[in-house]
Design brief:
The longest helix has 26 residues. This protein is α/β, with parallel strands linked by helices and 382 residues long.
Amino acid sequence: MSKIKPTDGPLSGLRVIELAGIGPAPFACMMLADMGAQIIRVERPGQKMVKPELNFMIRGRQSVAINMKMPEGLEVVLRLIDKADCLIEGYRPGAMERLGLGPDVCLGRNSRLVYGRMTGWGQDGMLAQSAGHDLNYIAITGALWASGSRDQAPAFPMNLLGDFGGGGMLLAFGVVSALLRATRTGRGDLVDAAICDGTVSLMTMIYSMRARDLWEDRRAANFFDGGAPWYNVYECQDGNWITIGALEPQFWTRLLELLEMDPAKFGDHHDPKSWPDIRRCFTALFLSKPRDHWSALLENTDACFAPVLSPAEAAFHPHNKSRRLFSDDGLSQPMPVPRFAEARTPLPSPPPKPGADTRQVLEAAGFSKNEVERLFEKGAVS
């Protein structure tokens, strides 16, 4: 049986029911668990998972297996919700209502409940009932179009921008906001978090720059999209890569000092007409030496430099080690963030096997031992 370690994290004492899914909703629950919330993850009976102990996104949970298609199983979930502060689900719109676990039912039983919903398109709108994935959601917002090289197809920013930035983080923020309101008013709320909504929000600065004629709708034509040569990625002699981010004048000056270059050679480096020459010069220069050479010269200076590290390398970079960005258990598991001066945010307990805590959770929720045994015998829980 998995054990949840006591913690005095900022969300300690908060109880969340998570209906198991994939992607952004579990990530939001991971964020809450990292902050000390008690997360009870409801799995389907017989759920198979490859190496669940290495699925970092479900760390810090208790896992119960409940057959929600059986009336007895549905009642178990409802009784758990009765004592919860929050419910989080990531199903297609209407699925929870068909299960008998819609907002009206749950909030009718527990008026203080915060009901968090995670979808791609949102609970309503033209595309609400359509299937989709991260790539589709960021495509419709303008974010994908603006990513990548000028003369190539838009580049995939993995699924960080949509699923986890615009999705999971937005849901976690919405849930905590609603919980703060519930504390003040005594009333819960329904949180409609959608990946496309959150991705548009992340694009606020870009849309603001467009409104002020500071952004061109051409890839690799702007400061932050690979257009500016002094805010870019360069290949090194050994096939590795480095980044230069010398946006402000003082950082540009420091970069040229360290590279022993005369600023007069480039003229006004903010003028896009100068960018091709600067790019050709930097490309040739950085190709002349391996990455380690440039790290030794430019790292830990105001040149705004960092090497491009693989996931395998990132955990061993001295800065990341000094900040303890990864666990020290050899798994390169990202540590909880952000940090607090007083509240503790230690690494939560390991991810549980599906259903590992069913008996313990039900008994703690007030089910008698006889009730629990009958539920196991009927197959309502497992």
